[in-house]
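User: Batch of two.

Assistant: Item 1 of 2:
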Amino acid sequence: MDVQLLTTVLVIFVATLVGSALQSQRKDRCLQDMHRFHVTVAHKDKRLIWGTMNLQSTGFELVYRRDMLSHEAHAKTSYVFYKDEYNNLQAIYRYVDELTDENRQRRDRDLERAFHPSPIQFSVRAIRNFLDTATDSLTQAFNLILGRSKIVTNQALLSQGQAHLTGLTKDILGYVGTNYDPLLERFVGTQVVVETTQGNEMYEHVGILKDYSATFLEILDVYFSQTARLDVQDVTDPEITPPLAHYGYNADPTVLESIQAVLDHRVLIIRNQTPRPILITAICSPASRIEIHAIVEVGRTLRYALEDISPKERIVVELQLVRRVDMVLPRAHSLLRHRAERYTPAHAFGVPLLLQSSSSAQRREEAERERLSLDPSDAEAAVSLGLLLLQRNEIQEADHWLSRALEMREKLADGGLLATQELERTRQMREETGAD
C-alpha cells in the first residue's frame, strides 16, 4: 500500500477522533456564564421563557421552577433550545436583583476572574486569542502539506481527505476559543453602549462588556426597562378592586409590592418604594386611556387628578420598572457602538428609535397634534408628541415640543423630569450628528 495514502488516511482518522471529542465538549463562552443560573430568554417574536439554564455544546435546556400544564393536560418541565435556533433569540437576561446568595457569590467570582485575571488566566486568554488569529494560517499550512502528498493515482481520494481535514482542523483549533476581535478586546471590562434591533425598533443598552464570542456579546449591570401593570385600590370604596392586585409581563411581584397605587377621592396617589425610578406611562379604565409619561423617583409620591374617568371604574396603571440585569445578546442583531460614560437608572426609560414608522404611531401623532391644536397649553400632549418624533429620529422638531412642554412644567405630573431627560438626549444626538 502506498505510504503517502496510508499516512493521509491515518491523519484523517486521528483528526476525526480528536475533532469529534473536542467538538462534543465545546460550549459558547458567553452562554457558559449563564450555566446553572435562572435566566429569561426572549424570542424575536416577543415570547418569554424562563428557567434554570443547563448548557450543552448543541444547545441548552431551561428547567422550569414549577411544572407547566399544556392544553393537552400533560405536564411540561423544561424547554429546549437548539444551537441552530440561536439566531431566533432576541436576548438572554439574568436578573441580578433575583440572585440567591450562592449565585451572587458565583457571579462575583466570575467577575473577579474576568476583570482581575491571574497571570495564568491572562496567558491562557492571550494564547487563545493568538490561536484564533492563526487558525486560517494553520489551515492553509495543512492544505499545503497534504497538497504535496498527492499522487496522480489517488488524487480523488486525497482531495476528499483534504477537504474533510480542513474542516476538522478548524474544529480542533476552535476548541481553544471563539473568534478573536482585536477591536472588541479593547473594550472588555469597560462600560459600553450596545445597539440592538427588535422588529422595526432600535434600542441602546449600556453595560460593562464582560466577554464576546462569534455568536454573542455579554454585557453586565444593565439598567433594563420592564413593562408592568398595576391595579389601583380605591380607598374611598375598597370593593371596587381587590387591594393591591398586581400583574405584569414577567414582572417580579416583590418589586411591584414596593409600589403603592391608591385612589383617594378621584386623586391617584402612587408611591415609589423600589430602589430605582419608575415611569408611569398611562392610566387606563375600561372606557378610556390617559397617557402621562411621568417619572416617579425613589421615595417620591406622584399625585394625579382623574377628571376624565368615571367613578366606580376599575383603574389600571401601566408603568415601566428599572431592573438590573446581565444580558447575552446575539451579534446577528446587536452591535457595540460607543464607549459609555456617566449613566443613571432613569436613562433606561429612553425612547427607542423606530427604524420604520408604524400606522399606530402615525395615528398617535395625529391625535397629539389635534390635542395641541385644540389646547396649545396641553403640556402632556407636547411631551407625547416630542417622544413620538424622537422615535422617528426627527430631532429638531422633538426638541421644539419638549422645550415647549418644559415651559409649562407645572402642568406635568412629574414636574418635567422625563421631558428634561429626553431633551438632553436630543441635544446629545444633535451634537453627534452635527445638526443645527
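Item 2 of 2:
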Amino acid sequence: MPTLNQRIARFYDESSPLWLDVWGDQMHHGYYGPDGSQRKPRREAQLDLIDELVDFAKLPDRVPARILDAGCGVGGSARYLAGRFGAKVLGVTLSELQAERGSAYARLEGADHLVEIRAQDVYELDEPAGFDVVWSLESAEHMPDKRKLLAHFYELLRPGGTLAMVTWCRRETPPKISAEEQRTLNEIARLYHLPGWVAPSSYSTLATELGYTDIRTDDWSEAVAPFWGEVIRSAMSVQSLIGLLKAGAGTLKGAWAMRYMQAGFRQGLIKFSVLTARKPTLR
C-alpha cells in the first residue's frame, strides 16, 4: 500500500497540470478582504494572500536573505518572495512534476539564480546555514506529526528567524464535533490525503512548548471563503471538464472534495489558520 507521502506526491503529479492550465502557478487560496466581501480577479486575490502573510509576519521589518518555501507547489510564492525581497529561496515539494515545472518557470522568468525547487521531503532537509524565514503556505495540513514539523522548522531557522504559516484546521472544541461534521472532515481528509485534523490552538501551544517567541495567530477563514466558489465555477468550464476527465480518478476525487470544503467554510467547521513566530536570537 502506498505511503502517505507517495499518495500526496501522486495526487499533485496528476492534478497540477489541470490547475496550472486553469488557474496558473499560484496553488493556494485567495484573500478577499478581512470579511471576504472584496471582489477581485482570482490571481490578484492569491497574490494578496501572500502580501497579507508577509505583512502579518512583519517580514519587511527584517528583510530576509534566505527563505525556505516548505510545500512550494510549482514555486509561485517562492518566485514572488524572491522578487519582492531579492532573497534566495529554496522550495521543496513531494511532487516530481511540480519540481520540474517550478524549475522551468524560474528559468523562464530569469529567477533561477535566486529560486531553487527540489522534489524532497521537508523532513529530510538538512541546511546548516539555516533560513531567515520558513514559509509554509497550505502544506502543514499534509503533515502527520505537527510537533515534529514545528520542531524541524525551528531547527532550520536562523536565530531571530521567522516562521510564517497558514494551514487548514478544524474548529476549536467545545462544542463537540458532531457526527455530520466529522463525516465532512473525514471525506476531505480522504480525498485530499490529509492525515487528520487539529484545532488552531494546537499549533500555538506547540510553538510555545518548542521555544518560539513572538507567537501571533489569526483566523482568515472569512477572508478566503469565497475562493471555493471561484474554484467550483472555474471547474464548470469546458476546458476544466475536459482536463478533469484526462487527469484521472485522483483528480476527479479532489474535485469532488471541493463541495465539502465549501460547506466546511460555510458551517465554520474549517478554519484557515495563521501562525507566525520567531526563533529567539542568541545571547
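The mean pLDDT is 92.
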